[in-house]
Amino acid sequence: MTKPYHVVGIGNAIVDVLAHADEAFLDTHGVQKGIMQLIDMERAVHLYGQIGPAQEISGGSAANTIAGIAHLGGRTAYVGKVKDDQLGRIFAHDLRAQGAEYDTIPAPKGAEGETGRCIVLVTPDGERSMNTYLGVTEHLTPADIDERLMAGAAWIYLEGYRFDGPESHEAFSKAIGAAKSTGGRVSLTLSDPFCVERHRAAFRKMIRDDVDLLFANRAEILSMYETEDFDEALSRAAAEIDIIACTDSENGAHILAEGQRWHAPAIPTQIVDATGAGDLFAGAFLWGLTAGHDLETCGRMGCVAASEIISHIGARAEADLGALFRQHGLI
Amino acid sequence: MTKPYHVVGIGNAIVDVLAHADEAFLDTHGVQKGIMQLIDMERAVHLYGQIGPAQEISGGSAANTIAGIAHLGGRTAYVGKVKDDQLGRIFAHDLRAQGAEYDTIPAPKGAEGETGRCIVLVTPDGERSMNTYLGVTEHLTPADIDERLMAGAAWIYLEGYRFDGPESHEAFSKAIGAAKSTGGRVSLTLSDPFCVERHRAAFRKMIRDDVDLLFANRAEILSMYETEDFDEALSRAAAEIDIIACTDSENGAHILAEGQRWHAPAIPTQIVDATGAGDLFAGAFLWGLTAGHDLETCGRMGCVAASEIISHIGARAEADLGALFRQHGLI
User: Is A235 exposed, middle or buried (0-12, 13-18, 19+ CB in 10 A)?
Assistant: First the structure.
């Protein structure tokens, strides 16, 4: 039986506020380069007051992934909490306009907090440093998880960042249970090395018990397995998970499954803004997988999609990814 | 005595919602190509529901001009009405972050309407078709005009679009009176040929009585003087206004003053999004003028700035305009 959804994603619903900044700005304002830091509303307001002119583009890690799969023609849905405010409507519009289903009930106008946003500071080298005010997206509860939706997914895709926030583990458990009850498979992204640091035990347990496909980058998988030996981390992951897709920046991606290992080369491009590279790698990989491509090809699709995303501001595809796959002989 | 501001602008405070669309989409949804159409909230919600993923970038014609002057180091202030909502805060941030003063009191949370926005549909040829929901920005009244601000300006810059909306003429009159009382000069942009159509008599009167510098493009000045002869339109304008700066797309710009006429060539570039080309032409021209450059150089600066703006999405400068002026030997 064909399931109604190729991939259903769960994550933090975030609008990105993208601005350019130099290294001195990061130092002066205590922004750690290249990672995601959680900030409260007060810090968000302060930091926003310091940055230059910005542009607003819908983001959210898993939402970027789901948008990428929808862009490629995959059947997708997304679960994540916005508020019934202007930024929330922008987030919902951009996801639906890309062809993804999105029906999570927004927090009402009167609720505390606002739609989550991420002040993304892009340095001249194209690296992004993320400052996330979670707002209402922190409060995604098991009640927001529609079991029929999860049961209808060939794959669910879980965002590691969602380990932050109350009731997030319960929400994930409910989603995993429903998905597995109909033979659905579970993919997880580790999201960020410091996120792994905060929740290593919970990540470990989920990986051991439930995860069929793990997305990570070098820093994240090293943090996960508390080693500085990349090959060791990959081997240990491969011993407990069916499929590993691990990116390594300009060195491309490593895919491990069934005792084999493949390498997908990175596509050289001028890095304008690295925001979303990992998200779109995962989106293209999952699309390839659900479209029946072999794992090496999925990895190569991921690298092509990542190179498109880092060539412009924002974490949603601007070029036609399917056309790029054809150009690279992948479809 | 040096005045505190080089340029103070008055216009509609708008956040642009930029999306790509093809010609068929414009036809299907009754969007007229290449011009600005006013739409109500219902139409805005409907049209927004039909367009693809978008990005939000602060816009507003005069605000883009003022942001450009501030970007170049000019001392500027802006007057235009937003609401105390998320889009209003985005608009205010982006202008202040560029270095412009912006102190217009926002419409309160409870006010009818929202911060104005413009759904900008960019076709593959780079042309933009604008669908503007004015919202609260329509209601800028004489009370919002700070006479001390206007009196402190070497130039005020009036946006033709602001002829729409109740009390807009009274607000302009107050601003002009205050500016002229201290020897300030008045510049006006015609904004749009259909805007000229709606308010020709009022434009005529202001031009005859008050305007020292007129910005227009070919379609606007033809509409203004109800002729199809471009040279005739320019001559008639030159007979009643000190300085005319008239753009003509890929043919560059024509500057007329003191019985002379100069031509500034357009800078060839790949057109990604024409939004803001005229606004930044005006910004660069006014900056050049207040920095003491001759009119021909001001026109060439305008063309360089316009070429930068049309090379990317959005109507605010991304490259360093001063550096571009140096590259072109203008400063």
Answer: middle
Which among B185, B134, B129, B186 is positioned nearest to B162, based on CA atoms? Answer: B134
Mutate to test the interface with B, among A22, A57, A85, A90 (most CBs of B within 10 A): A90
pTM assigned to the model: 0.96
| pLDDT per residue as tens digits for the range A313-323 | 999 999 999 99
Domains and CATH numbers, chain A: 5-12+61-86+95-102+138-327 (3.40.1190.20)
Please report residues of A whose CB lies closer than 8 A to that of B52.
Answer: 97-98
* CB-based contact A97 B51, cutoff 8 Å: yes
Query: A316 vs chain B: nearest CA distance in angstroms?
Result: 9
- Alpha helices, DSSP H only, in B98-191? 147-151, 168-181
Q: How far apart are CA B6 and CA A324, in angstroms?
A: 48
Predicted confidence (pLDDT) at residue A48 exceeds the cutoff of 70: yes
CA distance B19 to chain A (A): 10
Q: Report the complex ipTM.
A: 0.95
| Alpha carbons B135 and B156: distance in angstroms, whole number | 24
pLDDT tier at B1 (50, 70, 90 boundaries)?
low
- CA–CA min distance B146, chain A (Å): 25
Question: Each residue of A102-140: pLDDT tens digit?
Answer: 999 999 999 999 999 999 999 999 999 999 999 999 999
Q: What is the pLDDT of residues B148-172, one digit of tens each?
A: 999 999 999 999 999 998 899 999 9
B189 touches B157 (CB < 8 A): yes
Query: What type of residue sits at position A10?
Result: I
Cα separation values, B272 from A311, B107, B125, B308, B311, Å: 15, 34, 7, 10, 5
